[in-house]
Amino acid sequence: MTITIVADSVLIESKSARNHQIERVSHEDAQSILARVKALYFAVWKRIKTSATQQIADCYQEVVQ
Prior knowledge:
The chain is mainly alpha-helical. It has one domain. Helices cover 77% and strands 0% of the residues. α3 runs antiparallel to α4. 0% of the residues are buried.
C-alpha cells in the first residue's frame, strides 16, 4: 500500500480532496488499517506500553515500505 501525504489544511478545506483520498484506499487496506488502529487503541487503553510501542513501529514501517 502506497500512501501519498496530503497537507491537513488541504483535506480540511477541500471536500473533493478528501473524497479523492478515500477513493484511493481499497476495502482490504481500510480493514487492515482499522484493525491495527483498534489493536493499538486497546493496547494503550490497557496501558500495555511495550505492545503499543511495537505496534506503532510496525504501522510506520508498513506505511514507509
